[in-house]
Design goal:
The protein has 9 helices and 8 strands. The chain is mostly helical. The longest helix is centred in the N-terminal third of the chain and has 24 residues. It is globular, with a radius of gyration of 35 Å. Keywords: Signal.
Length: about 250
């Protein structure tokens, strides 16, 4: 009997110790996670933050670069420029005038037109003037910005002449803008002039037209520049080697 009682007391004592150990563990601090103790939990955020900061710095440096071709200009400001330079009429291939454009099979002129027309300004012509042998001619709006053929103008003269051109809401941009709302911003004018003068103090009519043509995507009809291509070209970096080669060609 004595042994049985001693055994029961021993089991009760062991159970009490186990219970006390479990209760105390609730008040002990949790063990540190290996990944957190080694800094792995914070590493991705730290790397991402540094990369984002670096990217913002690069973008800011590009936009702040003096005389750079990429300007921090809102897209709506380019609408005001395009609405002054854009036209509802575009001269194309004069030899396509004899085509009936009835969708005839195997017709080489099926997708060629002598004159394209739109209800709203759709193209900035890349030519200053175009004349057909039958006497039809088109003198572009932007030709009025320049004086005699080959004469160079300054940024100040360009800004003054551009502001004097009538604004019509062009085809392409979303929304609508009246002429009263289309006052030009200095930033947009400077960006366009810098792009088309290649950062020089002056630009000629020939250079102006050729550089508009360079803004047309390869494989497209380069007699006219549409809105989407214009705004994309204004917002992209220029190829310095390509532009240097062009400078050697244009006089």
């Amino acid at each position: 009997r004595f042994r049985n009682m001693a055994g029961r007391h021993l089991l009760s004592f062991v159970a009490l110790l186990v219970c006390l150990a479990g209760s105390c563990s609730a008040f002990l601090p949790p063990l540190a996670s290996p990944s957190l103790s080694q800094g792995r939990g914070l590493a991705p955020a730290s790397v991402g933050g540094a990369a984002a900061h670096h990217a913002r710095g690069v973008m800011a440096a590009r936009e702040a670069k003096a005389g750079g071709l990429r300007m921090a200009v809102e897209e709506v400001e380019y609408v005001k420029v395009f609405g002054r330079l854009g036209e509802k009429l575009l001269f194309g291939d004069s030899s396509a005038g004899a085509c009936c454009h009835s969708g005839c099979d195997n017709c080489e002129w099926r997708y060629s037109f002598d004159i394209l027309q739109s209800a709203r300004p759709k193209w900035i012509p890349t030519y200053r003037e175009m004349r057909f042998e039958d006497g039809r001619e088109h003198i572009t709006k932007w030709s009025g910005i320049f004086g005699e053929e080959g004469e160079a103008i300054t940024k100040e003269a360009f800004a003054e002449k551009l502001a004097g051109l009538k604004f019509d809401m062009p085809l392409g941009p979303s929304g609508f803008m009246t002429a009263k709302q289309a006052e030009l911003s200095d930033e947009a004018v400077e960006a366009v002039f810098t792009k088309l003068s290649r950062g020089k103090d002056k630009v000629t009519d020939r250079q102006f037209g050729m550089r508009l043509k360079k803004m047309v995507p390869p494989g497209m009809d380069d007699t006219g520049l549409m809105w989407s291509d214009f705004v994309c070209a204004m917002q992209e970096e220029a190829d310095e080697e390509e532009e240097e080669e062009l400078e050697q060609i244009v006089v």
